[in-house]
């Protein structure tokens, strides 16, 4: 893909911000002095731009854990249908459950999609029977087991 086209996918980022994001997504511990040198600006400019992007919610510098390496060998997506007036309550409960990595509001027959991470299928079974199925307002679930991750993208700019 041509660089100009890739760059045009991110019109809210100017060239300096784009360069910062590009560098930090490869290595969030990269020294600002090195990024400044590569972009031809001062270290202070990089520091200020990073802080501004963090304040605006554009950029988060976080460590990403590989679930499998951390012992969470079973991952599943669970579609959840709820009673219309219980959706917010169900989301609040899901947000407090450690096995739930992601909660997404969707359209269609299921209002929510969640990603569940557990150590094994016994834990998944227990989670479904003893936790998820007991949340008031949940009317139906559909479990989709992840068999193999074919792409996991954390890079947003190239």
TrEMBL record:
User: In its keyword annotation, does this UniProt entry include Transcription?
Assistant: yes
Keyword terms: DNA-binding, Transcription, Transcription regulation
InterPro entries listed in its UniProt record: ArsR-like_HTH (IPR011991), AsnC-type_HTH_dom (IPR000485), Dimeric_a/b-barrel (IPR011008), Tscrpt_reg_AsnC-like (IPR019888), Tscrpt_reg_AsnC/Lrp_C (IPR019887), Tscrpt_reg_HTH_AsnC-type_CS (IPR019885), WH-like_DNA-bd_sf (IPR036388), WH_DNA-bd_sf (IPR036390)
Keyword hit for Transcription:
yes
Q: Which GO terms describe its molecular function?
A: sequence-specific DNA binding
Write down the Gene3D superfamilies for this protein, in alphabetical order.
Answer: 3.30.70.920, Winged helix-like DNA-binding domain superfamily/Winged helix DNA-binding domain
GO BP annotations listed:
response to amino acid
Domain HTH asnC-type residues, every copy: 13-73
Cellular component terms, GO, for this chain's entry?
A: cytosol
Q: What is this protein called?
A: Lrp/AsnC family transcriptional regulator
Q: What organism is listed for this UniProt entry?
A: Brevibacillus nitrificans
Taxonomic lineage: Bacteria, Bacillati, Bacillota, Bacilli, Bacillales
């Amino acid at each position: 893909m041509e660089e100009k086209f890739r760059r045009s996918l991110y019109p809210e980022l100017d060239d300096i911000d784009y360069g910062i994001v590009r560098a930090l997504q490869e290595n969030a511990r990269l020294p600002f002095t090195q990024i400044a040198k590569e972009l031809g600006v001062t270290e202070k400019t990089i520091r200020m731009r990073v802080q501004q992007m963090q304040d605006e919610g554009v950029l988060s510098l976080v460590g990403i854990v590989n679930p499998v390496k951390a012992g969470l060998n079973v991952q599943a997506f669970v579609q959840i249908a709820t009673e219309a007036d219980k959706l917010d309550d169900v989301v609040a409960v899901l947000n407090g459950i450690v096995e739930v990595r992601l909660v997404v509001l969707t359209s269609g027959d299921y209002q929510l999609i969640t990603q569940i991470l557990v150590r094994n299928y016994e834990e998944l079974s227990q989670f479904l029977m003893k936790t998820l199925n007991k949340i008031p307002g949940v009317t139906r679930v559909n479990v989709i087991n992840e068999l193999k991750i074919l792409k996991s993208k954390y890079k947003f700019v190239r």
